[in-house]
């Protein structure tokens, strides 16, 4: 298994080993909490060691009475006879330990070695002495000694602390800390699992052991292995320390000394013991569990009556002093757990408002939901305020179904109260999020209902937002630019009248975006609007504009613009906890990778988004379509179930508006050799988009009809599609190359001469597009183009990954950490062609990064 975020440490250790075997020797300390991956790293090091280096691995055991020289006993079969004899004598009491140490030193001096001693925190005194002895004399030994230990269990009084103090003065001793996995690494591990990667990172704090255990048993709240590991840690604690741990688990994630003292008088000594155990730690003045899942495992075992008592004590203690904004969430938690509804309604709404104001939308949604559970006795206006806050927080955090339902309930309550302005405003909000849920027909009708209701009440700020909503829907559904402009003008006039700059900025942006997509110019104006919005507007509004740019760049097949737009949107959404926008932008990013020819990365990115439990329907439809296209292009089975599932998640208008659905179905039919279905699916798509003015929707479908031998209708077409329909296949292919879409360029060349067909075939083969290769060969046979290569060249067949000679050249240059431009200069090709080759190499190797590709090269060389 490849290491995640451990490559640097492994590389450092490999460097130590190389330096040590040629002298002088070294000692490397690898430290980190339990489950962080110390054993995995040293085992990788052992496997990568040169065969001429002797590998010796021993471990200390968590025994009540540790074995004397236990690690050395493990190694005995691989050591020289003198060491084995000395060990036997030492155990029998006929030989001193220092004599054994002398024998081991001579053995290591005679043969370059990697000596690993794992879990030194459990070592006996003799093993500690052995490490002291070796460390002092390593400069004369051609060996690397690696010792691993859990730094979370080594406190001031631990017996290992003295040894570490001794080693601090030796310059040939190196220390390597293994940090928790980042959010992106946890997300990589979670790919293919229906889990929230952000929540997984929160529960595990990036601990690889906990991450893998959760993924192996996703149906369980707390995997049995984690529960047992926690129980094992707690087994050695005194009763007082166990009580402290139980109280900390009930009190929450991070506990201040005053709060702990308010529930448990004089906890200092017992707390120190719990910290030394490694299950909790101090952060500043507060105490917290190292992992949230560990806290939950402890909490699970606390009796219900004890939990209730502790929550009530905590609530009393916290309310007795000043309450800050940061205390609100914890007070709400304790209020509900203490069974105090009045306190819940005092603190939960305030906690929700605070969370929303600080962009913690998932926390806000949870706190609003908590308040709503006790809100039946509240006046109608307070209930609707809670519902509106809950809806907004749910929608921004990707919980569309919950948010839409709260919107509907708020509409009903406003209607019953006769509050027409707020009823209309909530209808407008409901409309916007129904579109995101893939229900565009209902969204459009709800938007019109909101506008008519508010228009009847006269000019207002709410009416400005209603026209803005219709402007947005017209832009997203690619209606005539005049329709978008009409609502934009009304929204701008009302926004300026009532001083609402958000409405004005949004309306101008969407009108410009609609023209840019339809007429092909104005991208820079839209970019400036997004940058301005990010500097001034509420984060959610700026996130919406950034998301539109991801979408429209992908629709126009501009891979560089797509990548840049997705990168900017991701950064903004991560900064402001905009989960819906984040998942949506990543979905468009997977489409951009597909267009670039990076199909493995596209499929992985799509799968990661699809696996998230809160991926909205439109996003799921997009990512399912990307996965279906990758399968179709690679000649795999089960393509149509994915495309049909995508179509079932959203209504027909949404499938058309997103731009990928119909074209994917048409291409899948063409790759399967079903030209009749190509023409039928393409015409269905054109019929669905006949009221739209978007040339990037109709142009591709017309081209597919032409490729399938039909006569395409006269429809709007943009860029390379217009050129291909006009018979200029060469110009179309060149424009596709400029946009960075090698697969589409090869498709255009199928209409060309013999050299163009050979060029198209080479690109399809480099991409692993087996279905397109088969169709291209059929076209070549039908036109009498010879010769036709039957499969890959001999050199390609000989390569274990199916790389061509040119791709192997590129892989070797990747090992030198060269950029696309530097590779291009070395191979006398263009940077874009170099980029295509790099994408093909990553696809064939099944890796995500250049670094991973270089490691594959090393692995291949060793074989």
UniProtKB/TrEMBL annotation:
Q: Output a single Gene Ontology CC term carried by this record.
A: cytoplasm
Instruction: List the InterPro entries hit by this protein, alphabetically.
Output: AAA_16, P-loop_NTPase, Sig_transdc_resp-reg_C-effctor, TPR-like_helical_dom_sf, Tscrpt_reg_LuxR_C, WH-like_DNA-bd_sf
Q: Which GO terms of the molecular function aspect are on file? A: adenylate cyclase activity; ATP binding; DNA binding
Q: Which GO terms of type biological process are on file?
A: regulation of DNA-templated transcription
**Domain annotation HTH luxR-type: ranges:** 796-861
Q: Which UniProt keywords apply?
A: ATP-binding, Nucleotide-binding
Keyword match ATP-binding? yes
Which Gene3D superfamilies does the protein's record reference?
Tetratricopeptide repeat domain (1.25.40.10), Winged helix-like DNA-binding domain superfamily/Winged helix DNA-binding domain (1.10.10.10)
Q: Does the keyword Nucleotide-binding apply?
A: yes
Write down the PROSITE patterns for this protein, in alphabetical order: HTH_LUXR_2 (PS50043)
Please give the PANTHER family that the UniProt record associates with this protein: TESTICULAR SOLUBLE ADENYLYL CYCLASE, TRANSCRIPTIONAL ACTIVATOR DOMAIN
- Specify the protein name: AAA family ATPase
Its source organism is: Streptomyces fagopyri
């Amino acid at each position: 298994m490849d290491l995640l975020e451990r490559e640097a440490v492994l590389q450092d250790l490999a460097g130590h080993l190389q330096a040590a075997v040629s002298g002088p020797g070294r000692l490397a300390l690898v430290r980190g909490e339990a489950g962080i991956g110390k054993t995995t790293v040293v085992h990788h090091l052992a496997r990568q060691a040169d065969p001429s280096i002797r590998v010796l691995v021993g471990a200390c055991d968590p025994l009540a009475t540790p074995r004397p020289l236990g690690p050395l006993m493990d190694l005995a079969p691989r050591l020289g006879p003198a060491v084995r004899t000395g060990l036997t004598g030492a155990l029998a009491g006929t030989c001193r330990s220092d004599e054994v140490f002398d024998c081991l030193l001579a053995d290591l001096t005679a043969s370059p070695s990697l000596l690993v001693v794992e879990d030194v925190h459990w070592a006996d005194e003799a093993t500690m002495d052995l490490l002291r002895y070796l460390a002092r004399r390593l400069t004369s030994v051609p060996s690397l000694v690696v010792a691993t230990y859990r730094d979370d269990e080594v406190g001031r009084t631990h017996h290992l602390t003295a040894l570490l103090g001794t080693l601090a003065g030796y310059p040939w001793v190196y220390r390597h800390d293994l940090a928790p996995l980042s959010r992106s690494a946890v997300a990589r591990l979670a790919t293919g699992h229906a889990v929230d990667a952000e929540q997984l990172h929160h529960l595990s704090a990036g601990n690889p052991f906990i991450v893998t255990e959760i993924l192996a048993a996703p149906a369980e709240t707390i995997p049995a292995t984690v529960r047992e590991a926690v129980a094992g840690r707690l087994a050695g604690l005194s009763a007082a320390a166990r009580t402290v741990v139980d109280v900390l688990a009930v009190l929450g994630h991070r506990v201040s000394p005053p709060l702990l003292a308010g529930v448990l008088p004089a906890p200092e000594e017992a707390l120190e013991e719990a910290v030394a155990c490694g299950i909790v730690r101090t952060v500043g003045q507060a105490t917290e569990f190292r992992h949230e899942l560990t806290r939950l495992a402890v909490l699970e075992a606390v009796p219900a009556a004890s939990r209730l008592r502790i929550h009530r004590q905590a609530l009393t203690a916290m309310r007795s002093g000043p309450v800050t904004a940061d205390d609100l969430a914890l007070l709400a938690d304790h209020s509900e757990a203490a069974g105090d509804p009045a306190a819940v309604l005092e603190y939960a709404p305030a906690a929700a408002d605070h969370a929303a104001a600080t962009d913690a939308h998932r926390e806000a949604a949870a706190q609003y939901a908590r308040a709503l559970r006790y809100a039946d006795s509240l006046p109608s206006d307070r209930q609707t305020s809670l519902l509106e806050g809950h809806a907004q927080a749910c929608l921004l955090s990707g919980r569309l179904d919950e948010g839409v339902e709260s919107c509907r309930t708020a509409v009903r309550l406003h209607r019953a109260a006769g509050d027409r302005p707020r009823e209309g405003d909530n209808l407008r909000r409901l409309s916007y999020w129904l579109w995101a849920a893939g229900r565009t027909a209902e969204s459009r009708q709800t938007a019109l209902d909101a506008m008519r209701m508010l228009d009847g009440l006269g000019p207002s700020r709410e009416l400005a937002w209603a026209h803005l909503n219709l402007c947005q829907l017209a832009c997203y559904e690619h209606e005539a630019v005049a329709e978008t402009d009409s609502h934009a003008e009304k929204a701008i006039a009302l926004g300026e009248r009532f001083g609402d700059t958000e409405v004005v900025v949004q309306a101008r942006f969407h009108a410009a975006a609609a023209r840019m997509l339809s007429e092909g110019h104005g991208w820079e104006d839209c970019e400036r609007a997004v940058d301005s919005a990010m500097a001034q507007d509420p984060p959610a509004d700026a996130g919406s504009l950034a998301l539109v740019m991801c979408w429209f760049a992908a629709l126009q097949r501009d891979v560089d613009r797509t990548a840049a737009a997705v990168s900017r949107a991701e950064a903004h959404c991560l900064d402001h906890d905009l989960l819906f926008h984040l998942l949506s932008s990543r979905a468009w990013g997977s489409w951009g990778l597909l267009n670039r020819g990076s199909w493995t990365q596209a499929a992985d990115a799509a799968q990661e988004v699809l696996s998230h439990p809160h991926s909205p329907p439109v996003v799921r439809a997009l990512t399912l379509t990307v996965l279906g296209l990758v399968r179709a292009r690679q000649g795999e089975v089960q393509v149509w179930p994915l495309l049909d599932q995508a179509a079932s998640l959203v209504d027909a208008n949404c499938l058309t508006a997103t731009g990928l659905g119909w074209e994917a179905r048409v291409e899948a039919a063409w790759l399967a050799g079903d030209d009749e279905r190509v023409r039928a699916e393409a015409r269905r798509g054109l019929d669905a988009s006949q009221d739209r003015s978007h040339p990037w929707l109709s142009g591709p479908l017309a081209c597919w009809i032409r490729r399938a031998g039909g006569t395409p209708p006269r429809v709007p077409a943009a860029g390379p599609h217009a050129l291909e329909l006009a018979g200029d296949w060469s110009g179309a292919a060149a424009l596709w190359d400029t946009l960075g879409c090698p697969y589409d360029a090869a498709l255009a060349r199928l209409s060309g001469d013999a050299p163009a067909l050979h060029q198209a075939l080479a690109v399809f083969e480099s991409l692993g597009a087996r279905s397109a290769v088969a169709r291209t060969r059929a076209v070549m046979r039908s036109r009498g183009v010879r010769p036709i290569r039957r499969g890959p060249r001999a050199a390609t067949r000989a390569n274990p990954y199916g790389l061509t000679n040119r791709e192997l050249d590129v892989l070797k240059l990747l090992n030198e950490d060269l950029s696309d431009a530097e590779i291009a200069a070395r191979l006398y090709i263009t940077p874009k062609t170099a980029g295509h080759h790099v994408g093909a190499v990553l696809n064939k190797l099944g890796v995500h990064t250049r670094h991973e590709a270089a490691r594959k090269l090393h692995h291949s060389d060793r074989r």
